[in-house]
Design brief:
The structure is a single chain. This protein is an alpha/beta fold. About 55% of the residues lie in helices and about 10% in strands. The protein contains 22 helices and 16 strands. The strands form five sheets. It has a five-stranded parallel beta sheet, with helices on both faces. Strands 1-2-4-3 form a four-stranded antiparallel beta sheet. Helix 14 links the parallel strand 11 and strand 12. The longest helix is centred in the middle third of the chain and has 25 residues. It is flat and about 85 Å long. The structure holds arginine. Arginine binds next to strand 11.
């Protein structure tokens, strides 16, 4: 594993400088592989040593690195040390590299990378991740899908790094729209249709009652009345509301399952409605609640304290708003779950909302407000299905499965699949995820089914294809890679070394994903791994090679498959074994 080698290098540096090994670890990184030649394996950044005070800033850089290079003694692991542009380059013994890495992957496949020294500071916390959070009876749009898959990735990553993760779905289940929905359902609703296709029916009723309410004042009055009853806790109205909510949650659970996503709690705005009065009271007591001329209640969140920016937390009629419920929810979650950090995942149009939320919490003297983070992502344009514009999550999944199944129909291996629909579904979903995770999540992008589902290029189909191919290689050699022993002498060629060198970077890549809460580093790492595996496949045959060579190569391919499959799992992709 990479940290074994980083330690070896750090030990030498520690001897020279007299500082602890740990000081050097973050300054040592694996060098990205070059397609052309086999280069050195690790680099030491001299700038990092200057910034953590090990080296003085002055003096000639070249002289300094040359001197340092001479002081380090090659040993059985570090074969060569050379000055480089940014510091030093290290070449390590390739036999030890192959043996250490593949042995570790064989013995502890799940722990590879995630238990690295480098990641020690990122574990042992309790993290609450709030994501997906659709609104009842309204559209589930591309933004909700992005929130779902990004939030799932963040949760998976945090959990893999040894944190306790609490996954929360914060439903839009309160507000005036429930007045309309309730009134609408009493006029247009059907219990039968609700049982048959709940999400569709609630959506239809909501759309229609909105349309009718535009020209019909009595509907608006009924809606206000219904919502008033809800807020007053009227049993019959609440029962209907609860039925909408329960059915919706059940439906969502079923669909999230297809996506491989689950939640620990289905919370929602309604849960915190009752607490908003306490929040307002507390704000008043702390002297934070100001009254405007219009009669609204606001909190000053300007740094100068001059009201140059403020957040509205109460309407002039005394009722609370979306942000008031969010303040209440945050306080309540802190009390219930005592998290170390809380992460909200929504599109970037809510950036100001979360800035206001965190500022209010800070003004309320909640020190943990600093450990709340908003992960903001960009918009997706043009996501549509055969039914037109996307309204339901299920339609997106059905469309992906359907299109993938059609594409697969043209391939000759499809007939060997036990359950082609299931494979098409998994591959289709990976295609959606990969398309989404390719760039910085803040970026907007245009969605195109043709591009998403291509088998060539850096797509989810290609990831799955590579994984399935590796599985098929293992199947053909029935169990050859289970044999613990292999001779690393047979893995000294360029292709094998490239794969091994690449695997050395896995923990660094996870570290970067965790720091920035961005999946693209891991995705790009896996894509490169797939390209390296494709070349190795061509040049390093297993079948027909002498048994000892075949055995060593199988170990290499098995190791690559383990990392590929672990990495896909973190991204929220279920690897398929055949396709
Ligand atoms: N339901 C909201 C929407 O669809 C997203 C909720 C985001 N989370 C929050 N705590 N405000 O826009």
């Amino acid at each position: 594993m990479a940290c074994f080698f980083r330690r070896k290098i750090a030990a030498q540096l520690s001897r020279i400088f007299g500082h602890k090994e740990d000081v050097f670890i973050p300054a040592i990184s694996a060098i990205p592989v070059s397609r052309k030649q086999v280069g050195p394996d690790f680099q030491l950044s001299v700038n990092d040593l200057v910034s953590n005070g090990v080296l003085s800033a002055g003096g000639d850089f070249k002289t300094k690195t040359e001197l340092l290079a001479r002081q380090i003694q090659p040993d059985e692991v570090i074969e060569d040390i050379a000055p480089s542009r940014g510091g030093l380059h290290f070449r390590i013994n390739k036999i030890i590299l192959a043996k250490t890495l593949l042995k570790q992957l064989h013995e502890d496949p799940g722990g590879f990378g995630v238990r690295s020294d480098l990641l020690r500071g990122t574990s042992g916390k309790r993290t609450l991740v709030e994501f997906s959070s659709p609104n009842i009876a309204k559209k589930f749009h591309a933004g909700h899908l992005r929130s779902t898959i990004i939030g799932n990735f963040i949760s998976n990553l945090k959990a893999a790094l040894g944190n306790e993760v609490i996954r929360v779905n914060y439903l839009g289940d309160w507000g005036m729209q429930f007045g309309l929905l309730g009134a609408g359902f009493q006029r247009l609703g059907s219990q039968d249709k609700l049982r048959q296709n709940a999400l569709q029916h609630l959506f239809d009723v909501y759309v229609q009652v909105n349309r009718e309410a535009e020209s019909d004042g009595t509907i608006q009055e009924e809606a206000r009345q219904f919502f008033r009853l809800l807020e007053q806790g009227d049993e019959r109205s609440l029962l209907l509301w609860k039925q909408f909510r329960d059915i919706t949650v059940e439906e969502y659970k079923r669909i999230y399952k297809r996506l491989g996503v689950h939640f620990d709690h289905y919370s929602g705005e309604s849960f915190h409605q009752a607490m908003t009065q306490d929040v307002l009271h507390q704000l008043k007591q702390q002297g934070l609640l100001k009254r405007t001329q219009k009669g609204t209640g606001v909190v000053d969140i300007s740094s100068a304290g001059d009201m140059s920016s403020y957040a509205t937390v109460q309407r002039s009629d005394g009722t609370s708003l979306y942000i008031t419920r969010d303040v209440a929810a945050a306080l309540d979650r802190k009390e219930k779950y005592d998290f170390d950090e809380m992460i909200y995942v929504t599109d970037k149009s809510q950036e100001n909302h979360f800035h206001q939320l965190f500022s209010i919490l800070q003004a309320m003297q909640q020190p943990w407000a600093q450990r709340c983070r908003h992960v903001a992502f960009g918009l997706v344009q043009g996501m549509s299905t055969r039914r037109g514009e996307v309204v339901f999550l299920e339609d997106i999944l059905d469309e992906a499965r359907h299109r993938m199944l059609t594409n697969m129909g043209n391939s000759k291996t499809t007939k060997d699949l036990d359950d082609p629909e299931d494979t098409a579904e998994k591959v289709g979903i990976s295609a959606l995820i990969v398309q989404d995770f390719k760039g910085p999540i803040r970026s907007d992008y245009r969605f195109e089914w043709e591009r998403v589902l291509q088998s060539q290029g850096d797509t989810g189909v290609f990831l799955q294809y590579t994984h399935a191919r590796l599985c098929s290689l293992m199947r053909m050699q029935d169990g050859g890679a289970e044999e613990a022993n292999f001779d690393p002498e047979h893995l000294l060629d360029k292709r094998s070394t490239q794969i091994l060198q690449h695997l050395l970077r896995y923990d660094e890549v996870l570290h970067q994903c965790d720091q920035e809460l961005q999946p693209r580093y891991l995705l790009n790492f896996l894509m490169t791994l797939c390209h390296l595996v494709a070349s190795a496949h061509k040049e390093l045959p297993v079948k027909g090679s002498p048994p000892a060579v075949a055995q060593a190569r199988l170990h290499l391919f098995a190791g690559a498959r383990t990392v590929l499959s672990n990495g896909m799992g973190l991204l929220g992709i279920t690897p398929v074994n055949k396709m």
